[in-house]
Recover the amino acids of this structure.
């Protein structure tokens, strides 16, 4: 059985792309665009830092998609911290 779309956990890059494409706040979208560029140039080593920076800007975005993105980034960050 598949989860409803809003319940599915997103990959970290997928979550950042969702912020870039769907967040109504232009400043947050700009953070996501920059994060994706940093990930492109920095590779896997840049993922955690960029995910944290985007996650920390999401306070004003509301709704089911925002909650899905926030949950996904939070899970990624928790798993990355536990791996240390």
């Amino acid at each position: 059985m598949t989860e409803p779309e809003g319940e599915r956990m997103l990959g970290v890059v997928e979550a950042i792309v969702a912020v870039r494409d769907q967040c109504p706040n232009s400043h947050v979208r700009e953070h996501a665009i920059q994060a994706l560029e940093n990930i492109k140039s920095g590779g896997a080593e840049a993922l955690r830092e960029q995910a944290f920076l985007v996650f920390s800007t999401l306070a004003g975005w509301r709704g089911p998609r925002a909650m899905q993105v926030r949950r996904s980034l939070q899970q990624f960050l928790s798993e990355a911290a536990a791996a240390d």
